[in-house]
Amino acid sequence: MSGATSGPAGAAVPDSTPDAAPSATPATAYHRLATLRSAWSRPAKPLLSLGAALLAYVVLSSVVLVTAVLLLAVVPGVNIARGVTSGDPTSPLDVGLALAMGAMWLPAGIVGVRVGGWRPLGTAWSVAARLRPGRSLLLAGAGGGLAVVVLAALAGMLAGAPDAAGAGASIPQLLLVVLLVLVLAPVQAIGLELSLRGTVMQALGTWLRSPALPVLAGTAVMLIGRDLTPAVLLPALALGLSAGVLAWKTGGLELPIALTTTLTLLAHLVGAFGAGSGAGAGVGAVGAGPPPPGPRGPRARRTSPRRARARSRRRRRPAAHRPTDPCRAHRERPLPRRARRGPGPRSLAAVRDRERQARAAPRRAAPHRARARGGGRGPA
User: Fold this and answer.
1) How far apart are CA 252 and CA 247, in angstroms?
2) CB of 201 within 8 A of CB of 30?
3) Residue 240: in which H helix or E strand, if any?
4) Where are the beta strands (DSSP E) in the chain?
5) Is 347 helix (H, G, I), strand (E, B) or coil?
6) Is 194 in contact with 105 (CB distance < 8 Å)?
7) Lowest-pLDDT range, 68-72, 108-112, 115-119, 315-319?
């Protein structure tokens, strides 16, 4: 009885335990999901996927930028010659345009996966072919982003190097910035992770089994179009490497999306409300990491010190020395060297005055012409 009882029980344990283990561990890594089918992993598919995503982003970002410039040209009192954006964290125009152009990575990533790779979009989200709902992943990503922002704010306060640019913004202006950040920042974070991790990592993962080079490639793409300064490169490198490793280890984009969204939201909000303080400067340095690669709108035109001094001298010039009549200034310009003959007049005005006097003087007839008019007879 005991042996018969233990026999079925012992047979039930080996049947349930091995079946649960393979289902919990995915057979294919995240960066290798494009190799599940032979049609997805053809040699030309990675290139087509990357090319389609890049072309879609260039077209969409150009449409957004041109639309913004045309709208600003219609608005009265806006000087288009100074540029569209200047990097002010309290300006709704700067924040909205930067986030809108970054949000274009979401449709670009969808085009790269669906059109270029010609595979289901779920394979770009996770190994489960969908976005996996889980509070643990979201809380871990949000907690990591919050910790980074708090440390950056404390470092900025201890450094004590506030930036006075953008300080003193109005309440409606800050509320509009908050609204734009809450709407566009999650879209930008999702598009950034889908394009760099879901497209770049899986495209290179079609050829490579190791995740090292795909992670480095996605991080390198984040550095395109950025300033080559340590304050910009270090946060971007840290975020890119962290998001790539997290996507590979967790088998999906849920944790990288939560991390990037938290960093983007808090960086813009603290930068707007803390403009002119050390905390705002520290968080602004961390906020240089989440923005996507590529153009972020034309900046204000930079003027060299020499050109600025010349411009200020022209503005301080007295009104008496400014040529008010362009025609008069043209008439009084000196003659070229070839037109100067002898010690005569040296300006066009003097030459024309002399010609006018010569035409107005009474003409004296020559003697032979007078004899010709008199019939050829000489004086009596």
Assistant:
1) 5
2) yes
3) helix 230-250
4) none
5) strand
6) yes
7) 315-319
Whether residue 35 contacts residue 28, with contact meaning beta carbons closer than 8 Å, is answered with yes
pLDDT by residue (tens digit) across 222-246? Answer: 888 777 788 778 888 888 999 999 9
Q: Residue 333 — left, alpha, or beta (φ > 0 → left; ψ -120 to 50 → alpha)?
A: beta
Cα of 105 vs its chain's centroid, Å: 12
The string of pLDDT tens digits covering residues 277-292 is 767 676 776 666 666 6
Query: Measured at the alpha carbon of residue 267, what is the angle toward residues 182 and 176, in degrees to the nearest 5?
Result: 40
Spatial contact of 296 and 180, defined as CB atoms under 8 Å apart: no
Terminal-to-terminal C-alpha distance of the chain: 176
Q: How many Å apart are CA 162 and CA 282, to the nearest integer?
A: 9
Instruction: Give, as one character, the DSSP assignment of residue 113.
Output: I
Judging by beta carbons within 10 Å of its beta carbon (0-12, 13-18, 19+), is residue 13 exposed, middle or buried? exposed
And the tokens for 188? 């930008």
Query: Who contacts 105 (Cβ-Cβ below 8 Å, separation ≥6)?
Result: 57, 188, 191, 192, 194, 195, 292
State the DSSP string of 43-62: TTHHHHHHHHHHHHHHHHHH
Task: For residues 219 and 222, give the distance between their C-alpha atoms in angstroms, rounded to a whole number.
Answer: 5
Question: Residue 126 pairs with which residues in a beta bridge?
Answer: 252
CB 96 within 8 A of CB 187: no
Sign of CA dihedral 283, 284, 286, 291: positive
Tokens of 369: 């012409």
